[in-house]
Amino acid sequence: MSQHFDVVVIGAGPAGYVAAIRAAQLGLKTACVDAYVGKDGKPALGGTCLNVGCIPSKALLDSSKQFHNLTHNFAVHGISASNPTIDVGAMIGRKDKIVKQFTGGITMLFKSNKVTPVAGFATLKPGRVVSVKAADGSVSELTATNVIIAAGSVPIELPFAKFDNKNIVDNAGALDFASTPKRLGVIGAGVIGLELGSVWKRLGAEVTIIEALPDFLAAADQDIAKAAAREFKKQGLDIRLGAKLSKAEVKGDEVHLAYTDAKGEQSLVVDKLLVAVGRRAGTQGLLAEGTGVQLDERGRVVVDDHCWTGVEGVWAIGDCVRGPMLAHKGSEEGIAVAELIAGKAGHVNLDTVPWVIYTEPEVAWVGKTEEQCKAEGIPYKTGSFPFAAVGRAVAMNETAGMVKVIAHAETDRLLGVHMVGACVSEMVHEAVVAMEFKGSAEDLARICHAHPTLSEAVHEAALAVDKRAIHKAN
Predict the structure, then answer these.
(1) Res 401: pLDDT
(2) Of 217, 239, 238, 234, which is closest to residue 226 (Cα–Cα)?
(3) The pLDDT value given to residue 131
(4) Residues 169, 191: contact at Cβ < 8 Å?
(5) Exactly one of 449, 451, 459, 471 is catalytic; which is it?
(6) Where would I find the Pyridine nucleotide-disulphide oxidoreductase dimerisation domain in this sequence (predicted)?
């Protein structure tokens, strides 16, 4: 006999586990089904983000940053060390310990909130029946008044560069190299490629990033993208734009690549190849016949502005629906849907979801780029300010980058705020709050910012929108 719940959530990533906890907080009997198995062979909550994405990558980024600072940046502070080395195994072990701490933390949160975890692969059947296939092959069924699909996403695999988890890897494989590869090839200069490429570059790898698009970070404001590209080039990241991979062949312990660029056919030999060309919705095998839930041409679950699928009691959130594939976007959708189910108001403004790339320097933004404003015919004005003119940045020896503010030319309403520099992953939220409250560039300009702080760059960029920055020529 199947168990009945008020809410069954499919997927325990940042969208699913947050939705489950919020639903339980609201007094709904809730279960959360997830198929992920950790390195120890046991079920692990948290999805891609916690197990092989956001959290472990940030752990390695921080470890590699410390080593790079020791070997390259500390001398200016009068700090020196002779022949420093890094134990890659210990670094990976630290990352794994952090992951285990957080997956265990979700287990405890489920327990304290009375969420029922169910291990196995879920398939939605008609009538809000969720069939669960466990690791041992046994099948059970849950029924629900409401089902929230939070199936997440999986790496896109290239047909001519299939993952073998040894020489050709996805993001998970690039988090677990036993040693620093001498030559690392990366396909895709997006968030994953840049972050993991940066990790191994700092530890001594020769990193070549091949990107098919002609523009670097096409989704970002191009002033910010160009500033970031200059810094990455200084660091020795070899980023080749307009380069389309056509072949990746493993020969012994090497991967031989063939690609074409503006100059014609090119070749490259690497020891490891990270394929990071994007992710697709993890909806394969998710829906049985007759559910009424629709998938779009990219395999994403079709939903309305409130994450409803159009089928009574069936919702979908996170990476498997429209909008940016970002953990925090999925979490907010999870909370919104749980509250809608409970009869409360729930809403997510996709226009104010912040984006962050955790490289050195970091890249962060919210809202429209200058290119989008031009394409949409929106009258706009801009102001920018470099970190090189910020006292705190100079004191930290972190002077790379800038802040750019875009406001409506007629109303002064903030349209977008874009940053590249130290700690901008934290600074961008001032802009998010201002935009959520329909703020203007003048609002940012009139707010007193502490001195000396990095956030003074936001203040000065807002002043620069009306050509009244204090610490640079306008």
Answers:
(1) 98
(2) 217
(3) 98
(4) no
(5) 451
(6) 353-462
Torsion angle defined by CA atoms of residues 168, 173, 178 and 184, in that order, rounded to the nearest 10 degrees:
50
Main-chain phi, psi angles of 218, to 5 degrees = -60, -25
C-beta contacts of 285-291 below 8 A and 24+ residues apart: 285/121, 285/123, 286/10, 286/122, 286/123, 286/124, 286/149, 286/151, 286/320, 287/123, 287/124, 288/123, 288/124, 288/125, 288/126, 288/131, 289/126, 290/125, 290/126, 291/124, 291/125, 291/126
Three-class SS state of 151: coil
Question: Are the beta carbons of 18 and 328 closer than 8 angstroms?
Answer: no
Q: Please tell me the pTM assigned to this model.
A: 0.97
- Amino acid in position 86: I
User: Which domains can be identified in the chain, with CATH numbers?
Assistant: 3-154+280-351 (3.50.50.60), 168-277 (3.50.50.60), 361-465 (3.30.390.30)
Q: Which H/E stretch holds residue 30? A: strand 30-34
CA distance 176 to 94: 12
Distance in angstroms (rounded) separating the CA atoms of residues 177 and 170 = 11
41: left (phi over 0), alpha (psi -120 to 50) or beta: left
Give 386's contacts (C-beta < 8 A, 6+ positions apart). 399, 401, 402, 457, 472
Q: Are 207 and 199 in contact (CB under 8 A)?
A: no
d(CA 449, CA 454): 9
Which helix (DSSP H) or strand (DSSP E) does residue 142 occupy?
A: strand 139-149
**Distance from C-alpha of 106 to C-alpha of 115, rounded to nearest angstrom:** 10
Paired residues of 402 in beta bridges = 386, 420
339 contacts: CB under 8 Å, gap ≥ 6: 22, 26, 345, 346
Share of the chain above pLDDT 70, in %: 100
437 burial via Cβ count (<10 Å: 0-12, 13-18, 19+): exposed
Instruction: Determine the Cα–Cα distance for residues 332 and 350; give it in Å rounded to an integer.
Output: 10
Q: 474: pLDDT confidence band, cut at 50, 70 and 90?
A: confident
CA pair distance 221, 357, nearest whole angstrom: 13
Residue 267, strand partner residues? 258
> Across the chain, which distance is largest between two alpha carbons, in Å?
74
Cβ pair 230, 313 in contact under 8 A? no
